[in-house]
Amino acid sequence: MRAKTPSHVAAIMDGNGRWAQRRGLPRIAGHLQAHRAVQSTVHAALNYGITHLTLFAFSCENWNRPQEEVNLLMQPHRWLVTRQEVASYRESKVSVSFIGQQDDPRIPAGCLEWMREAEQVTAVRNPQLRLTLAFNYGGRQEIEEAVRRLHSSVASEWSPDDFRQLLWSSDLPDVDLLIRTSGEQRLSNFMLWSVWYAELFFTETLWPDFRGSHLLDAVADYQCRSRRWGAIPSGGPL
What we know:
Layout: E1 8-12, H1 16-21, H2 27-31, H3 34-48, E2 52-59, H4 67-73, H5 76-79, H6 83-91, E3 94-99, H7 109-121, E4 129-137, H8 139-152, H9 160-164, E5 177-180, E6 199-202, H10 212-223
Parallel strand pairs: 1-2, 1-5, 2-4, 3-4, 5-6
Helix pairs in contact: 3-10
């Protein structure tokens, strides 16, 4: 059976630095163009009936980048989602939330305040789209933290669902479609629990050039696939 429109699409937003370098610009110039791709992708997700969109904004490993670049990335209102866009999301019934290690002391107070502000401003009832931004996030770190919480709990018996409730992404459904831009073909420690049976789509497009039409291409490709979750299709083995 061919797949329907994916409910949960996740994207590894890759290629900002290369976009800038190809134009003879500093890497941060590529990041400053990223929000245009985010905005176009959000609007397209609304039009295509996607209910969850998760974007990989800043990984736990990104702290190893040059300090100038990290300083900009710690100002998500400049490169990820502007305050004006946050206000428009509320009108469009798009709720914004963040997952990741938010108690990290390296995250500036101003960044945390903006994250809380974005969540509060877009806290609408029955949102049409849930936009989740993975910030200071790592898939292994998410699972390790869940294991620590489970170990410290008093429960002697637990189920996979109990474990899932301890994840940062506990209130998100499994990822149906995972997109990675810039031609790279790896997971890079993203949503390791949730992508267990996700369909993968890789594109050469650099993230600053990614638009809603590229999302439509990925969804169309997804809809041509047969999702079996390890089962034999009704017509026999392929």
